[in-house]
Amino acid sequence: MPRARSRRDVSGRKSKVIIQIAAIAFFLLVWQLVTMTQLIGLPTPITTFEAFYSLLITPEPVLGRTLLEHARASITRVLDSALIAFALAIPLGIAIGWYTRFDYFASTLIEIFRPIPPLALIPLVYALFMTYGNTVLLAQLFIVALAVFLPTVVTIVEGVKSIDPIIIDAAKTLGARGNQLLQKVVFYASIPSIFAGIRIGLGIGWASIVAAELIGGSGTGLGYFIMTMYQVGGRMPELISGIIMIGIIGFLMNEGILWLQHRVIRWA
Amino acid sequence: MGINHDGLILKDVTKVFDDFTAIDKVSFTASEGEFVCIIGPSGCGKTTVLRLVAGLVAPSSGSLSINGTPISGPGSDRGMIFQEYALFPWRTVRDNVAFGLEIKGVSKKARDERVDRYLRLVGLSEFEARYPYELSGGMKQRVAIARVLANEPTVMLADEPFGALDVQTRRQMQEEFLNIWKSERKTILFVTHSVEEAIFLADKIVLLSAKARSVKRIMSVELPRPRERLDAEFSALHEAVLA
Fold first, then answer.
1. Which has fewest Cβ within 10 Å: A67, A123, A149, A170?
2. CB contact under 8 A, A180 and B82
3. CA distance B232 to chain A (A)
4. Which A-chain residues 150-179 have CB contacts (< 8 A) with chain B?
């Protein structure tokens, strides 16, 4: 039985890669066709990728940095914020999901804050951190941490609530009580939803850091790069290169978490 | 109280959920080492009786006790086997069986010895490193049985444990379960909706009625073991239970 399963997995993975390549080829083809109609001022894929490639290794003259340097600035910010957010969201999510009274309390607050787009808080947060030397960075970290925290905690709470009650009953009849139940059963049973929460949170965090960089006097970062390329006269190949970089990094982050999840969860 | 404090005693046990009466004044006993089957149609409260004895739910009225001690919550002296196996998917076979001993704080060495013993008893020693998803239904239920036995409970509760298995595996598991019971001498409370299974296994059958939500009849099964399903006496008893 396990052997048949792994064989199917291998051929499944091969066809998955082929289909993924086909999807990208399809996108590039549509892009090329749109540029050929000349209805909008879109550069061709070739022009764009030439710019993308040279931006990877040579600094862009206006800001004096390569695209990779901007990417690293954004990634560092989002990971710093995300780590803070996860450190809070994982224990809180488990506690909220497990203790009904705490759920009533915390979920009320979470559901009030959740509909507010974190980006709507940017002006407020900038104003709040005005007196600090590094206002922009602090505000960005705060907004991204909030953007990551809320969906992550909600996903974990739902995961804990959907643990099969029979597993809990089994643990109780084997003698597990209170904290033992939490540490030896609820925590492990929540690991799949913790990964789901991390994946969703990181995706949303990545989207928000780029948006947060668009606004502030950030100096570095992919969002700031895109905005600058627009402001210096709509330099399309550079601008689109920044956007492609955002997409690639977002995709790789997601794949990275999935890879880690596969390593950790060996039991399914 | 009464004179006899031995074994498991249920006296006028009633359980009401909101406004729904799951069981109404159920009384029966299981003496030490006795194999008791609870049978009855779906929805007669069989599972509720087990959950009460396990201490997973509290009775609305009436009393439950083991060797004179009232049941007031779940405890490792009453192990439970579930139809859905209820294994911990993130633990290997070995670590599933070790769970209760870990909880009790038994030393690694003593734990390993006991786990080895019960893995051998259920014939799963060579599968100890597997995860539950890699096992068949029958093997999963063996793990669940070893997991309960490792805790060395006085009472084993089984909630239709073989209900999800095919007929062949089911019969094999019944035989093995009887052998384990003979060697370990636990008191067993075994819920099933199969009259045949109950007659094959039990010393005593408690028949619950769906209408009254209470004990309809208690019958002892005097047939010598190993029992043959095709025996005339077996069939006669089968008819008697259904009557």
1. A123
2. no
3. 40
4. 164, 166-167, 169-176
Which of chain A's residues have a Cβ under 8 Å away from the Cβ of B88? 167, 170-171, 185, 188-189
Q: Is the Cβ pair B131, A169 closer than 8 Å? A: no
**Beta-carbon separation of A267 and B89 below 8 A:** yes
CB contact under 8 Å between B89 and A174, yes or no, is: no
Whether the CB-CB separation of A223 and A209 falls below 8 Å is answered with: yes
Other beta carbons within 10 angstroms of residue A167's beta carbon come to 20
A257 to A61, A74, A156, A195, A199: CA distances (angstroms): 35, 18, 16, 7, 6
pLDDT per residue as tens digits for the range A7-56: 556 677 889 999 999 999 999 999 999 999 988 889 999 999 999 999 99
Q: What are the φ and ψ backbone dihedral angles of B154, each rounded to 5 degrees? A: -85, -30
Contact call for residues B238 and B199 (beta carbons, < 8 A): yes
B130 within 8 A of B92, measured Cβ to Cβ: yes
Token readout for B225 is: 């073991």
Does the ipTM exceed 0.90?
yes
Whether B113 contacts B188, CB under 8 Å: no
What end-to-end distance do the CA atoms of chain B give, in Å? 35
B1-77+188-243 architecture in CATH? 3-Layer(aba) Sandwich (3.40)
d(CA A233, CA A211): 20
For chain B, positions 103-162, list CB contacts with chain A under 8 A: 103-104, 131-134, 136, 144, 147-148, 151, 157
- Cα distance from N-terminal residue to C-terminal residue, chain A: 13
Report the C-alpha gap between A59 and A72 in whole angstroms. 14
A185 in contact with B, Cβ within 8 Å: yes
Q: Torsion over CA of A122, A123, A124 and A130, rounded to 10 degrees?
A: 100
φ, ψ dihedrals at A64, nearest 5°: 70, 25
Q: Where are the domains of chain B?
A: 1-77+188-243
DSSP class of A44: P
Judged by CB atoms closer than 8 Å, whether chains meet at A267 and B131 is answered as yes
Secondary structure letter of residue A65 according to DSSP = B
For domain A43-264, give the CATH number.
1.10.3720.10
HSE-CB of B208 using CA atoms within 13 angstroms:
29
The pTM score is 0.89
Pick from B103, B131, B144: which is nearest to A175 by CB? B103
Strand partners, B82: B159
Helix axes A165-173, B46-54, angle to 10 degrees: 50
The string of pLDDT tens digits covering residues B183-194 is 999 999 999 999
